[in-house]
Amino acid sequence: MSRYSKVRGWSEMIREVLMTQRMPPWHADPHYGVFSNDRSLTLKEKRQLLSWIDAGCPRGEGPDPLEQAYLETRQSSAEKSDWTLGEPDHILKMCQPQQIAANGVFPYVYEVVAAPIKEDVWLKGVDILPGNRSVLHHCLVFIKYPKGSPWEKENNEGGLKGCFAGYVPGYSPRFFPIDTGKFVPKGSKFIIQLHYTATGKPEEDDTKVGLYLASQPPQWELKTKSAFNTEIKIPAGAKNYTTAGEYRFDKSAVLYELNPHMHYRGSWFRYILNRPDGSSETLLSTPNYDFNWQTTYRLADPIAVPAGSVLRCEGGFDNSSQNPFNPDPSQSVVFGEQTFDEMFIGYFSFAESRVPAITVSDGDSEGSAD
Ligand code: HEM
What we know:
four-stranded antiparallel sheet, mainly beta, globular, 370 residues, Jelly Rolls, binds protoporphyrin IX containing FE
């Protein structure tokens, strides 16, 4: 939108993407939840934009404000760092840039990087800077707590049960919510998982991870966990194959973010919070899930979760030929890493009281850290 004539030139396409609900990219049903990063337009805004296009995009008087804004943005972004949140305190780098072949299907790449920190620290944020967005499909970062430490049982290196940080299409970096942080004990390592998809020409990628130190320990520890189900077997052609996964909160918590994850056959996804008092609340419903937009839905008002609550994720897959994204309706599909396989994972970020930081009980480690 660098000048009026450009927007006018795009106006018919703007009408089309608004009418077909391709833009703005936002998939939450407005009946459930309020989200601080809601990108949707109100009905009034949509009407105003469409009426302006219908009227032939009248220009108005005076200098073009878009031209001025564009010049200013270009000037300020040239002066800014590549890191949206500013220069990190520490940067995790791969041993060497990854070389990605022109064609093929690639297994995930894993790089293990020692934390460049000699003491226990709290982070106020983590950012991932993709080296080459055209070929990097996603990047997840896991923390590997030191061997023999009380946190070792929390290690989780595949992404199924949560992650330390992640970059996916639609990602926008930001610092952790106020008074929360992620803990990195000394001696920790980070595992960087990279998934590449071929572009038709050889590519190089040098993705980096930025760590931002908190100036003092926060009140709450932030965690990213998930409710998932790997036991999925979607028959060929099935129009609405449903599944569900659950996560039990053993400690009281405050919920901040929700991030549904399925692949191309993903059709709809819901998060339902069942509290121990018997009450139940739908926190998020995406009736038309879109794999190309891996949105993290940030709750405008974080939700208090009493101990004993169960967060239930429900979802459906459309493996029929009516799903335009379906790679092959004639195949039955099971859980797997590639986008032509399927996944069912409902990620969420929540804060738990920090002290003691984490001491692991003898029982089931998943969610039972106390
Ligand atoms: C009123 C709001 C918006 C309008 C009218 C709009 C309009 C458009 C149009 C006309 C296209 C080109 C479509 C094509 O060539 O097929 C497009 C593509 C795109 N837009 Fe938007 N957009 C809006 C909001 C957003 C927002 C908020 C984001 C990012 C968060 C976004 C990200 C993209 C991307 C990544 C593409 C290229 C991928 C694609 O074609 O699906 N747009 N948009």
